[in-house]
Design goal:
about 210 residues, alpha+beta, DNA Binding (I), subunit A, two-stranded antiparallel sheet, about 35% helix
């Protein structure tokens, strides 16, 4: 809980201001932003597009039709593509204007979009890839200790996660998951992907106790 009488320094304007001059945030221990409210307002107003009024069609729209603000024409509803995010269920611009804009894009636009998608997907998969790399290294060390054949890679572990749908094979839970050897390496099981499955820690331990070979 913050003290309103306490003062702190704004990281932008370098002024000592009371705590009430800073906005609240749950991302910091003291619960306050590093920039004061006035600096946040100035930064927000400096962003491109601030205060810009939405583009509207200036021509008279006939009943049962929709106006396109790009070509400024009143067109039938069939001339607009579907867009579930809009209240009307139709796209803001007509299909012809969208096609013209698409044809005028640079030749490498599609490749840049795919590259941004690959970067975004890599950021999403980064924690899972790190966990898979650590699991592969741990199982390879154990396989070397037991002297059993098989060597895992990060891609092998990712394939196993995807094959089992990121859930325990026995109880179906998605919490506290581990890689489980179908035949334990301590009993002669290999470390190849065919001998691995996804199981929660409880099911993994129970199967190890009740394994009969």
């Amino acid at each position: 809980m913050t003290n309103d009488n306490a003062t702190r320094t704004c990281q932008r304007c370098k002024q000592d201001l009371p705590a009430s001059a800073f906005g609240k945030t749950s991302g910091r221990r003291d619960g306050l932003h590093t920039h004061c409210r006035e600096c946040c307002k100035l930064r927000h107003r400096a962003t491109p597009g601030y205060g810009r009024r939405p583009v509207r069609c200036t021509t008279d729209v006939l009943p049962g039709q929709k106006g396109c603000p790009k070509c400024n024409q009143s067109l039938p509803l069939s001339a607009f593509g579907a867009d579930r995010s809009r209240p009307s269920g139709l796209h803001c611009y007509c299909k012809e204007c969208i096609n013209v804009a698409a044809r005028s894009r640079p030749a490498d636009h599609t490749s840049r979009v795919k590259q941004r998608e690959r970067i975004r997907q890599a950021r999403v998969e980064a924690p899972l890839r790190t966990k898979s790399r650590e699991a592969a290294a741990a199982h390879n060390r154990r396989a070397k200790q037991y002297g059993v054949p098989g060597r895992l890679t990060t891609q092998h572990v990712l394939w196993i996660w995807d094959y089992h749908g990121h859930k325990c094979k026995d109880c179906g839970t998605r919490e506290d998951l581990t890689l489980d050897h179908v035949k334990p390496m301590s009993l002669g099981g290999t470390n190849w992907p065919a001998n691995l499955q996804v199981a929660c820690r409880a099911c993994n331990y129970e199967r190890w106790l009740n394994y009969e070979g």
